[in-house]
Amino acid sequence: MIVSIVNPDLDSEGFLCSRCGQHHARLPFAYGPQAPVLYFDIPKEEREARCNLSSDICIIDQEYFFIVGNLEIPLLEMDKKFSWDVWVSLSRDSMKRILDLWDFCDRIHEPPFFGWLNTVLPAYPDTLSLRSLVHTRKVGRRPYIELEATDHPLAIEQRTGITLARVQEIAEIVMHPQNI
Q1: Are residues 115 and 132 in contact, defined by beta-carbon separation less than 8 angstroms?
Q2: 85 - beta bridge partners?
Q3: Parallel/antiparallel/unpaired status of strands 81-90 and 131-135
Q4: In Å, how far are 21, 70, 138 from 25, measured between CA atoms?
Q5: To the nearest whole percent, how much of the chain has pLDDT over 90?
């Protein structure tokens, strides 16, 4: 499930929704799921025993490793970014390195870590398993997620930016998934 992430510095005033005809009080500029896709594939009654899920990492069966980061998309009409919080799978070694550096300022000098997107985003064709790079940032900030430069619409938008109209379209899709 994709949820909006409230950020008063980014969220704008409301908008008139073309899907339901209602005025929504705010236009969010960030969304994301609370866990990677694989987490939701595990029966609820097994999750506590098999999964270690925090707001930043998820480890499943001590075999699958995920980190959440910001896949940022520039906005063309203003000096702001739209952001998807996305989960990326990492190798055991990459996750170990990230956790070893978790509280160190020097982590910003690490080369990026390779991973596979493990998030399905509703406003795009299949986003599961897109090739990604995880760039660590200063302590307290989530990693920056960079998609491989392909012809996938999400990768194109990350490189070229989107309009406010596209942000509203995404909001309408997220708020009204039954109308897709």
Answers
A1: yes
A2: 70
A3: unpaired
A4: 13, 24, 33
A5: 77
